[in-house]
Amino acid sequence: MEEREDGISLGEIFHVIFKKKWLLLGITIAFMLIFVVIVEAFYNPGKEEYQANFEIRYPNQETNRYPDGSEFLYKEFISIENLELAQKKDTSFSAIDISKMRYKNDISITEIETVINNVPVKTGVYEIKILKSYFENETQAIKFFQALINVPVDKVLQASKDLDYNYNLLQFSGAGDYISQINYLDAQKNMILENYNKLIDTYSNNYMITMADGTTKKMSAAMGDVSNYFSTNSLSALRVEVEQYGLMKENSDYKKEIEAEITSLQREKSLNLLQIENLHKEIDRLTGQLNGTITDAAFQPIVEELTKLSKRNAEIDHLITNVYDVYLQNNEKDPTYLEKIKSFEERLNTHYEKLVEFTNIYQEFYLSIYETQSKALVSAGSIITSTGGISVFLTLGASLVLGILVGCCVNLILDLPKYLRSKKETSVEDSVASE
């Protein structure tokens, strides 16, 4: 009984703690404020991240390449070059330390995967995370994320504008002979038609643009214009005309090339004739040695080689007489040669001008599709969210519990010794009174 009286019960402890309720409440509130400030000002900024989930859409995305053919690598989205491009989009980003962000790996990007039949499959959705401490507030973070996410879209659009749509037409102007010029026109025509087909397969033949004069034009109509024009203005017919009349451009190096080719063919024919002569000698030798006929198996390889050389010499004669000599002689023998050249060049240049027109229209369709179909799509519910660190609610809950504990301890430290002394004195007085 004496030990129990000297001790203290749980009820007495609570009595001591709650004797000064206002002190307990004040200490709890003060501790909560201090704890929340420390977490939010010092701990969370170093741990908490902003994140955004997004995907990039653009034409021919399935090739995983930009329009210029360079590889589309999502990890380059957070390269220092892209960060600089994003920073230049808004003067409010000037204080963001992108160099530190990149080289301390305080920014990261991953491609989100899903699992199908126990196999991880890439979704094409990317997640970028950046430490919160780099931004003044969430508004600035949102704007920076939007700028950064749109950098690859900007690159796609710029690459589509930088494409050399007129490559074959530029080569046409520098070509030294008519056949090459016709080939370049043909290549340009085929490029336009093939790409129209690809675009129509993806975006339908009803895709429409507004022309410079305010009229509208469907893609199928633009493609039809090209097909119809060249169905009645055959480039193949121009080739035949060049070869038939031996048409050559004035002051062209093509004449020297033809003369050099003829010399080369004549040399080849001479070597072939020498080889044919030696093969005949070999037949004569084998005939005397084997007492056989030329139909024997031993002669077959020689006969095959003779046939091959004779056929090649016939081809050489045809090329020299019926092809190359036409270019070298017709312009001298044909009194209408210059008129033919003039007529031919007028038609050739008309086809060229028409292809320039078709190319410009095709380019308008191509750029329109890239401008309307290239975009960065932010996933629903992930425009910008805070992750990492300690949430405000968790911080408040933890600080409340810890604040109450601290307040209890303070009240016990302040009042428990006094209460124990008072209790002991009361116990002594009661003992004396009982005696």
Main pleated sheet: 5 strands, antiparallel
- State the low-pLDDT regions, or none: 1-5
Broad shape: elongated
* Mean pLDDT score: 83
Q: How does the helix and strand content classify structurally?
A: alpha+beta
Tally of contiguous helical segments: 15
Radius of gyration from CA coordinates: 45 Å
What is the ordering of alpha helices and beta strands? HHHEHHEEHHHHEEHHHHHEEH
Helix content: 55-70%
Topology, number of strands: 7
| Beta-strand percent range | 5-15%
Query: Gap between N and C termini, in Å?
Result: 17 Å
Brief overview, please?
This protein has 15 helices and 7 strands. It is of the alpha+beta class.
Describe this structure in words.
With about 425 residues, this protein is of the alpha+beta class. About 65% of the residues lie in helices and about 10% in strands. Strands 1, 2, 3, 6 and 7 form a 5-stranded antiparallel β-sheet that branches. A hairpin with a 5-residue loop joins β4 (about 210) and β5 (about 215-220). α4 crosses α6 (about 140-150) and α12 runs antiparallel to α13 (about 300-335).
What tags apply to this protein structure?
single chain; 435 residues; alpha+beta; five-stranded antiparallel sheet; two-stranded antiparallel sheet; 15 helices; 7 strands; 10% strand; elongated; disordered N terminus
Question: What secondary-structure arrangement, pairings included, does this model have?
Answer:
Layout lengths: L1 H5 L3 H8 L3 H27 L1 E9 L22 H8 L10 H6 L3 E10 L2 E13 L6 H12 L1 H12 L4 H8 L3 H26 L4 E3 L5 E3 H14 L2 H11 L8 H37 L9 H34 L3 H37 L1 E4 L6 E3 L4 H43 L1
Antiparallel strand pairs: 1-3, 1-6, 1-7, 2-3, 4-5
